[in-house]
């Protein structure tokens, strides 16, 4: 009907519920009377009255409404988290509805007077075995951990009041009877001969701290079994009161998050621990690149596919994918849609898809995965592929493997405004390193890097330094660049003066007039060269040295500096013990901006002017656009592809050289050049809008071995 607005609203915040999230179905428009007993007003509807129907529903991506049922019970909070009982019932019924006649979720007070979640169900077959384990597995896989019921109980019949309604008081009493069983549960563990005495002791104390009689798996993390932090506090206090040797504080329950690991920690307390202090003295060692994985436009995911793009001089800049734009717009509310619809668009080298994610592989419930921003999703998959490629996937658990990721703040809150804890964490940029270190139990340093355009190569440099200083034995290095939409804003607005009006990057060409954006996710695995050779890993290339500096006070806060670029290249060569005359290729920052190109050329000329042979300049931004935080790592990938195919590719969009190149020994290739040297050394540069400059020196490794 014309003028009628239907929506799904969060019953607590009174804001629009995100797509797929259960809330109350509402109707707004002239058909709603202001005197209606169920009418109200909401911030996003202005003065128009809104009718709260009392029906639970969720909005689907195609704008259809999926009705769940009547709003007969309100939301409740458990340990600070908002729980929708209907959402739990919906998930259980969806996957196990054929096995049960009824499922009912409600809150109750446990023997510690704390709110817990109870779930009762009536199987459709009286002889049906308990479905408790199946129910827990379904909820664990598809809902946040805090929505796991503490008590799950099978009933033969549902008690009814005199008025013919469900007798909730009796149901609660039936469920809370299980707590008495819980107090006797630990007595049975003493007969389990497969468990150590410490494991039995820990299981006994944990069982006494629980609100239910649910079986405890000694190998499964506490959180994944629905054991929340308050229960762990009780458990920790019990162990401290009992003066359990080797248990120090509640922090141990987070460092050793299941019974098996905690028991091993306590049992090993009598063994003198080896010193874990890192060697502060910098090790003089070269670093090997042993794993590579990435997602680039046109589904480029291998070095062979990457080389083909460079070799055939393809430029992947195009319009924003229609499917992605339609998906983005469908998630906007009316106000944002009106704000965006008239914005200018920019062209770039875009990924075809950013929403796919194998959440079950990483053990993340679907209800949490839907709140993960694309940066988190793609990074987890690409980092895993890089570990697999390196052969380290099965070896890094519990080891000092560092994680260094270049990323800016994701913009996912534009389409997911949920204030749920999983949503806030799911769009937080700093959590991207935690995702991998948590999943694979990595103990090395893990942090993000944001120095704008130089971020990826800065992360690469920091990882090498961490390995050399002994802070970690190996490292995962990454860079992520993703756009939710193609609207001109921020650094990609035409007012910045850095974007080419034709969206064409002509690096070092006489007609260069700006850069162009690009998307990509890149992961590299690093470890000491000596260790890589010993373990017979495939070595893509060797990091011989690197350096980092800052422009300081220059002609302007965003202005580049010839002297600082010259200094960082010379410092990197010194760190690598390489002479300028040994460098054959430089993969430049090469933005294609008029000022940026000239300053970079002048800095390179001042370093390599004495070289007897020409120095070939590469510029991958002409093919893939400016990948921002991943740009420097794309330069590394290009050099690795040159090492692999022993050829230097031509530079796309290059016709006539910039005047600064004339009468110099710097060459921008127009044709493919064969490499005959056995040992090839190349440099990679990245210069950030933040003023942070970085340069890395890479060499090929001829003795390939898997």
TrEMBL record:
Protein name, UniProt field: Uncharacterized protein
Source organism of this protein record: Dinothrombium tinctorium
Transmembrane segments: none
Signal peptide stretch: none
GO-annotated molecular function: 3-oxoacyl-[acyl-carrier-protein] synthase activity; fatty acid synthase activity
PANTHER family listed in its UniProt record: FATTY ACID SYNTHASE, SI:DKEY-61P9.11
Pfam family, one: ketoacyl-synt
Domain Ketosynthase family 3 (KS3): 284-700
GO biological process: fatty acid biosynthetic process
Residue intervals of the Carrier domain: 193-270
Record keywords, A-Z: Phosphopantetheine, Phosphoprotein, Transferase
Upper classification of the organism: Eukaryota, Metazoa, Ecdysozoa, Arthropoda, Chelicerata
């Amino acid at each position: 009907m014309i003028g009628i607005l239907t929506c799904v609203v969060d019953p607590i915040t009174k804001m629009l519920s995100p797509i797929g999230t259960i809330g109350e179905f509402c109707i707004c428009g002239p058909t709603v009377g202001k005197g209606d007993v169920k009418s109200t007003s909401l911030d996003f509807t202005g003065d128009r009255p809104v009718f709260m129907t009392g029906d639970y529903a969720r909005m689907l991506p195609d704008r259809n409404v999926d009705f769940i049922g009547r709003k007969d019970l309100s939301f409740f909070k458990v340990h600070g988290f908002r729980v929708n009982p209907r959402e739990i019932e919906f998930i259980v019924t969806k996957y196990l509805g054929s096995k049960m006649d009824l499922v009912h979720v409600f809150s109750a007070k446990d023997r510690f007077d704390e709110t817990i979640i109870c779930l009762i169900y009536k199987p459709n077959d009286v002889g049906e075995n308990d479905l408790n384990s199946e129910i827990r597995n379904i909820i664990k896989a598809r809902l946040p951990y805090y929505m796991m019921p503490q008590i799950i109980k099978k009933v033969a019949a549902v008690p009814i009041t005199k008025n013919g309604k469900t007798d909730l008081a009796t149901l609660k009493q039936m469920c809370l009877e299980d707590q008495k069983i819980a107090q006797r549960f630990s007595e049975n563990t003493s007969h389990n001969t497969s468990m150590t005495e410490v494991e039995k002791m820990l299981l006994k104390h944990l069982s006494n701290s629980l609100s239910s009689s649910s079986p405890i798996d000694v190998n499964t993390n506490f959180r994944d079994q629905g054991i929340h932090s308050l229960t762990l506090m009780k458990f920790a206090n019990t162990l401290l009161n009992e003066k359990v040797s080797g248990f120090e504080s509640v922090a141990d329950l987070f460092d050793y998050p299941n019974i098996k690991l905690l028991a091993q920690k306590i049992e090993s307390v009598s063994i003198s621990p080896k010193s874990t202090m890192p060697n502060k003295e910098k090790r003089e060692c070269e670093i090997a690149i042993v794993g590579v994985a990435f997602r680039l436009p046109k589904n480029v995911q291998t070095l062979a596919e990457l080389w083909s793009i460079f070799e055939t001089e393809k430029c992947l800049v195009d319009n924003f994918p229609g499917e992605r734009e339609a998906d983005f717009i469908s998630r906007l509310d009316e106000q944002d849609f009106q704000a965006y619809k008239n914005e200018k668009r920019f062209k770039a080298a875009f990924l075809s898809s950013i929403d796919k994610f194998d959440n079950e592989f990483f053990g993340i419930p679907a209800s949490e995965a839907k709140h993960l921003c694309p940066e988190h999703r793609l990074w987890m998959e690409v980092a895993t592929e890089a570990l697999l490629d390196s052969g380290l996937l099965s070896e890094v658990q519990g080891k000092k493997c560092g994680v260094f990721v270049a990323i800016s703040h994701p913009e996912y809150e534009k389409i997911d405004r949920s204030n749920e804890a999983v949503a806030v964490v799911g769009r937080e940029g700093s959590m991207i390193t935690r995702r991998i270190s948590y999943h694979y139990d990595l103990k090395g340093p893990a942090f993000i890097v944001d120095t704008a355009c130089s971020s990826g190569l800065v992360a690469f440099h920091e990882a090498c330094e961490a390995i050399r200083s002994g802070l970690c034995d190996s490292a995962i290095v990454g860079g992520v660049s993703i756009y939710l939409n193609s609207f001109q804003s921020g650094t990609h607005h035409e007012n910045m003066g850095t974007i080419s009006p034709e969206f064409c990057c002509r690096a070092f060409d006489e007609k260069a007039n700006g850069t162009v954006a690009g998307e990509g996710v890149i992961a590299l695995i690093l470890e000491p060269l000596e260790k890589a050779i010993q373990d017979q890993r495939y070595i893509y290339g060797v990091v011989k040295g690197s350096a980092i500096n800052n422009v300081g006070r220059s002609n302007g806060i965003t202005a580049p500096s010839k002297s600082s670029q010259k200094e960082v290249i010379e410092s990197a060569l010194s760190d690598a013990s390489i002479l300028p005359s040994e460098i054959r290729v430089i993969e430049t920052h090469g933005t294609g901006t008029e000022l940026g190109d000239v300053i970079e050329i002048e800095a390179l000329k001042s370093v390599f002017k004495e070289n007897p042979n020409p120095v070939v300049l590469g510029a991958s931004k002409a093919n893939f656009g400016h990948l921002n935080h991943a740009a420097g790592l794309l330069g590394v990938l290009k050099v690795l592809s040159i090492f692999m195919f022993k050829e230097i590719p031509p530079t796309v969009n290059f016709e006539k050289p910039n005047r600064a190149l004339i009468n110099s020994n710097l060459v921008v290739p127009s044709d493919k050049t064969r490499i005959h040297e056995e040992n090839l050394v190349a440099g990679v540069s990245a210069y950030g809008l933040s003023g942070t400059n970085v340069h890395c020196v890479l060499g090929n490794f001829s003795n390939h071995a898997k």
